From TrEMBL, chain A:
Keyword Protein biosynthesis: no
A cellular component annotation (GO) from this entry: cytoplasmic vesicle membrane
Originating gene: LOC118420810
Identification of the protein by name: AP-3 complex subunit mu-1-like isoform X2
SUPFAM superfamilies: Second domain of Mu2 adaptin subunit (ap50) of ap2 adaptor, SNARE-like
From TrEMBL, chain B:
Domain Clathrin adaptor alpha/beta/gamma-adaptin appendage Ig-like subdomain: 711-821
Keywords, comma-separated and alphabetical: Acetylation, Membrane, Protein transport, Transport
Region annotation (Disordered) ranges: 598-626
Places the protein is found: Endomembrane system
Membrane topology, from the record: Peripheral membrane protein
Protein name in UniProt: AP complex subunit beta
Pfam families, per the entry: Adaptin_N, Alpha_adaptinC2, B2-adapt-app_C
A single GO BP: intracellular protein transport
Amino acid sequence: MIHSLFMINSAGDIFMEKHWKSVISRSVCDYFFEEQQKANSPEDVNPVISTPHHYLIHIYRENIYFVAVCTTEVPPLFVIEFLHRVVDTFTDYFGDGGETAIKDNYVIVYELLEEMLDNGFPLATESNILKELIKPPNILRTVVNTVTGSSNLSDTLPTGQLSNVPWRRAGVKYTNNEAYFDVIEEIDAIIDKQGSTVFADIQGVIDCCVKLSGMPDLTLSFMNPRILDDVSFHPCVRFKRWESERVLSFVPPDGNFRLISYHVGSQNMVAIPVYVKPNISFREGGGRFDVTVGPKQTMGKLVESVVITCAMPKVVLNMNLTPTQGTYTFDPVAKVLTWDVGKINPQKLPNLRGNISLQSGSPPPESNPAISVQFKIQQMAVSGLKVNRLDMYGEKYKPFKGVKYLTKAGNFQVRT
Amino acid sequence: MTDSKYFTTTKKGEIFELKGELNSDKKEKKKEAVKKVIASMTVGKDVSALFPDVVNCMQTDNLELKKLVYLYLMNYAKSQPDMAIMAVNTFVKDCEDTNPLIRALAVRTMGCIRVDKITEYLCEPLRKCLKDEDPYVRKTAAVCVAKLHDINAQLVEDQGFLDQLRELLSDSNPMVVANAVAALSEISDTSPSPAAQMEMNQQTINKLLAALNECTEWGQIFILDALSNYVPKDDREAQSICERVTPRLAHSNAGVVLSAVKVLMKGMEYVGMETEFVTTLQKKLAPPLVTLLSSEPEVQYVALRNINLIVQKRPDILKHEMKVFFVKYNDPIYVKLENWTSYPSATQENIAQVLAELKEYATEVDVDFVRKSVRAIGRCAIKVEQAAERCVSTLLDLIQTKVNYVVQEAIVVIKDIFRKYPNKYESIISTLCENLESLDEPDARASMIWIVGEYAERIDNADELLESFLEGFHDESTQVQLQLLTAIVKLFLKKPTETQELVQQVLSLATQDSDNPDLRDRGYIYWRLLSTDPAAAKEVVLAEKPLISSETDRLEPTLLDELICYIASLASVYHKPPSAFVEGQALVVRRTQLPVRSASGEPGATGATESPVPQQAQPVQQQQSVIPSHDTAMGDLLGDLLSMDLNPQPQQQMSMTPAPQQDMGGMDLLGGGLDSLLGGPSPVAGMPASQASMGGGLGDILGLGISSTTYVPPKQVWLPAPKAKGLEVSGTFSIRQNVRYMDLTLKNNAMAPMGDFAIQFNKNSFGLSPASALQVPSPLSPGQTADVTLPLGTNGPVQKMDPLMNLQVAMKNNIDVFYFSCLIPIHLLFTEDGQMEYANQTSDRKVFLATWKDIPDSNEVQKEIANPNQLDPKGISDKLQQSFIFTIAQRNVDGRDMLYQSLKLTNGIWVLAELKIQPRSPTMTLSLKTRALDVIPQVQQAYELIIANM
């Protein structure tokens, strides 16, 4: 199981360590540093490293490497998932999981880690249980604490941890009972030079914000549940009812949580909402850059927050471009072109064109760079998924209900 | 207000100041001070000096302060064991607190204090907590057992905590069950003792399955891992386990999903091969695996390594999901590199898409990734025959890009394509040759040289090309040198007229100027082959090569089956069984075997530890197998005599051949010469009749040094004349130049001439049979004797005889058929490859020692044998070696010399021997060890005979 955890920042400092069993010397991280040196970029460090006596499994998030040390054979995904959960918890507690946030809250971080793992076994990882045990810091509470002398730590038994619904604490009370559901879909796609789709699929999630008193039992049904290819549920969802009736029946956790994530596979046709017409060419000493973006299958909705990024080859010295709308920047160190387009007006398609200058003397690059596209479309789920209705049982009051749809680009790439 | 303030220091000395604050009367100040201490601790500052002061703060009802002190204790108790004892009382008291949270916290913290002395005090509270009414306390206590086991395993077993843990497996609370499972699996992972093993029966499995649905995600991982170790008793049970685990595939935690996949993959093996159930289950596996690939890159990586195993085992699962493996340019490199290896292989239908995609990758920036993609194109060509042409043209396109590493990789790949589809794509050779100059990697150079050599007849300037490589011969890597040598020999055999000079040059470079034994040996082999028998050389060097298969980067089935059992674990990431990398732990062998049933589908899938070595036909190997049957030294001499003057310096070369061989060669030449002079086998007066001894005799006379043949027992009369109507047969057995002979003397004591001799053997223990017909000068006139040698093979029909070495022979002549029997001396059956390696170079295993230990002690037989000549160890081992008993190692123990020897019989039986030699003693002790005990008396006899007949 997980033996120790080291947090290493981008400068290579181990700024935090926690041992759940015996203390393992920091020098074990040398194996990690060795591996890190071989990598071209921070993301490229192999996540599972073996050393003569330990296994180092790490994730890279918020510019920090979270390196877990294990001494026995252990499921690596268990470790990776756990580490992600740790970072999620930090983000949840401190607003962000970065180095400063962790350093500012050392003691809470330490208490959290102690509470999340016991002898390497996960103990309490559900955010609502943790929050019962260790109150997250906020300005009001620190003020109150200093005045009254009370602490962040509650001395009640985390009741939820033992009930049949460990994700929900008992005795929740709200004056406004509300339940909001966000259906968010991301399109991962690779589009080739000619504009045809090489690969596309949809990753969807339904994120909920449920603030309901008591022990409500909810049922959410879809108009077209069959389009969901592969689903993974929050533990609260009753799998049997999904299998038999294709409805989501659950006692919700309190607050924000992800109810379901799903995947609409590559077998289904995926509607691609935007197209990019790239025209990039290189010759000796320079080149031309000409990119146009336009809407494709948007079901009449507006495409917003369009951002185009393009990692140019290393030999590119600078770019001199003119956008018809939005702004562009070229980072001459990272060689990344970013064009913040904004909304796409179907009548007047945004275009960015101009010249590329290359380092003198170096040959023009062999291949053209790929373009990645970000966009958002409100009020549309690209898969066509529609929520039919939401019913509540077990409680008497009438809650406010709402469903929002959002489609955005995930890993959306255009080859040029 | 943030915790950063805890790091502000004053000039006075931090520790001193903290000490003061810790001993303050004000609770608030105390707490702040402990927080400061903890903050320093987290960044690795040493605050252990404050131990007594912090422990003093422990007795408080403030839970937060208590927790902080506990945190501190856990960190520093190890370094201050005596001080830690001070805290014990508080712990014991806390374990009886009314608040379950405090009870749990106390038992949890106590387990974390890794001090032996404290563990004694821990037992009683722990026992109570394991039976606590509150499940929260029980589940914490379950983990505490694992902690305690880690500190003092014996104590845990003695105190019966393991039984208590097992009871918790049927606890009413799923969380308690999950923690008990986790604790038990960790204990059984680290403990070799059988008491620690987790037994599983149907009841526990049912309990686990019930708890599975209700416990936390982490608990599910532990339970699933435990389930995967269970062997269901029949199909139905396996099926029901699978059914109950399947819903876990829809969990949002990737760890749960992959552990569930493991249970299902194993379950499918137990359910049986191609039932409908398995087919449906396979369909259900695909979507969750695909979903794993769209999670965080770290998860993707682990998933891809596992998918690699899964698709090798069950290629159908992801058949239709090829696209998810397509690579995005901003994937981390470790994900990119994993993608195509796990790719479930191209088929005819999707090949166009696959090739287009691969071609795209080949223009990427990551060199490793590009290489892998080019290699993948080659694999497609080899795998899908219809696509080969498209692949080749794609590769040609890539070569045209002139990007150096792409070209090099493409050439390596094209070589494989040539191997797979001979005589199909040679038209592109000219394009390849254009790039000759740019190749600088050994792999690519070697491949190119291979191509030039293989197709020398179609390349007009092949000799020039190869010659250009030859210029820098000594700067090349061994791989290239070897390839160049072979290629030039091929060229020579194809165009002997123009390239004689070239071949001589390369042979002398390889044999005389090189220090590399491989290269030298290969050089000599070619040299001798060419000089002895160019036709044979042609057969060997230009032999048709076996086709290569497309599955080269696959795991072998046994390893694969083992790894399938380790899906979701580290082993699946490394693609090595845990025994190969988990060290220091007495790893208990478990969950390593899939049911034997799966073997029915794939031969040799389970059980055997040895696997068939992939048939990579390298020319070297072929040639090596040729050597023993040629008399190399003689070949040299004959080659020279026949003045096939390829050898510029025969003298030097001769001196390089090992001395005994040289002697043999000489001897044999004389023997052969005499044969031809005397016109066939005929008795020579004053000489023992057999040819071998004649040869040996001449050898001795000519002072060629030690006699070099194996020991030959004197001839015995096998068939007395009265029994066979006047034919007397006497004979013996011998080995000359690795051929076994039966040496016979036939004497006609009858009045009439005899003729039409023929011989036949009955089935015998070692399958000896005549290798050719009996050649007797016919007719055999009355009173005349004839010496006949009959070469023997060992591939005849086998039947165990009693006595073991008995050989029944039927001999026919024009008068009648006569039967007689004789005993084969066992050393006739010793083979020349009976030298067991002392240590295997590749695996670094002491082969001899391991084999010796492998054979049970009951198979060891000791005997005193005579050493009449009181030979020294060296003499003995030399002598024995001539009879193919090889000395593997020699040691001196207490003034006695120990020789460790091995020999192998023609039927593959190994006999290992330990020979204890007491200096100046007429006897020595021989211990023999073999799996076939029957041969021991014979081997003992052989030892005595050989040593006595020095």
